[in-house]
Each structure stands twice: as structure tokens, then as C-alpha cells.
């Protein structure tokens, strides 16, 4: 009977060792894609285990980096709760995507990841969270002043059209051309 218990313990140790030391991220992951003015997609995949919990925190790059434990708790490096944090589940050898919203445009961020094997609770990371830096897109320019006013009447055909934008604009390779389309035609 003692030999059976020894065999069971040895098999359990081999299984846990395999899961603990054989797990890793799928090559090229995690990634941050589909970056917009206010959000992005976090893509994570792991291999070598059974199932995974992927924890994340997205904070401005200037913030104090979190530890593994702080990422799992959804806080930054100063233990402040972070809105853009959470976790999601994935099977092994599968890329899973989590969409993030509520980011500020034209801002540098860092996404911190900690991936844990579901059954053993063993982290892929051993010292620090995995991190990916990215920047959200700037808001596109918009017209702030129309002269003559939008929907103005009794405007002569020779009057200049002046558009004032809310930020500097950069013209494309064809130069400063403005095409006006008559909606009635």
C-alpha cells in the first residue's frame, strides 16, 4: 500500500513539474492590437498547461509599475485600483482577446500581464509582470468654425469659404486641396 501512495505522489509531482516548468506564452504573445483613440485589444495565449487565467492592468507609462501580485489585484504599483484591469480565461494553445475601452487619446500606456495556470495556480512570470507599451491615437482634427456659417443662406458664389480646425492639420502629398460636393447632385 505504501508503494501505491509513493507512486501517486511521484506521478502528481511529475504532473505539477510538467505544468510548472513547461508552460509559456505562445510565441509572439501577448500583444496589443487594434489601438484607437480610446481603446485597444489585449491578445494572450499560453501553452504547456491545461487552462489559463490571464490577469492584466493597463496604466499610463508614467505610473509606477505593478508587481505580479498587484496585477492580479487590479492595482497599479502604488496599490491604487485601476479601471482598466481584470482577468480572462483561455484554454491551452489558444489566443484569447480582451477589448479595453476608456483610455485617453494620444497617451502612452503600458499593459502588464500575469498568466496563471488554472489548476496549479502557477504563474508563467517568475519575477515581474510581462509588459507591452503602446500609445493611443490622437483625436482627428475637426472643424470648429465655419465662415460663412454652416447652412448659411444668401452667400455669393465668389465669397471665400474659411474653415478653422480645432488643431493643426497636415496636408497629404497632393497639397492643400478641398473638394466640395453639392449634396443636391
Total strands: 11
- SSE succession: HEEEEEHEEEEEE
Nearest-angstrom radius of gyration?
26 Å
Proportion of strand residues: 25-35%
Mean pLDDT: 84
Strand order of the largest sheet: 6-5-8-9
Broad shape = elongated
Biggest β-sheet strands, sense, barrel = 4 strands, antiparallel
Oligomer: single chain
Structural class: alpha+beta
| Helix run count | 2
Measured as a percent range, the helix fraction is 10-25%
Measured between the Cα atoms of the first and last residue, the distance is 92 Å
Query: What ranges have pLDDT less than 50 throughout 5 or more consecutive residues?
Result: none
Short description:
The protein is an alpha+beta fold and 185 residues long. It has helices spanning 2-22, 68-73, and strands at residues 24-25, 31-33, 39-44, 46-47, 52-60, 85-90, 96-101, 108-117, 130-135, 143-147, 162-165.
Structure description:
This protein is an alpha+beta fold. The chain has two helices and eleven strands. It has a four-stranded antiparallel sheet. A three-stranded antiparallel sheet has the order 2-3-7, with no helix packed on it. A two-stranded antiparallel ribbon has the order 1-4. A hairpin with a 5-residue loop joins strand 2 (31-33) and strand 3 (39-44). The longest helix has 21 residues, at 2-22.
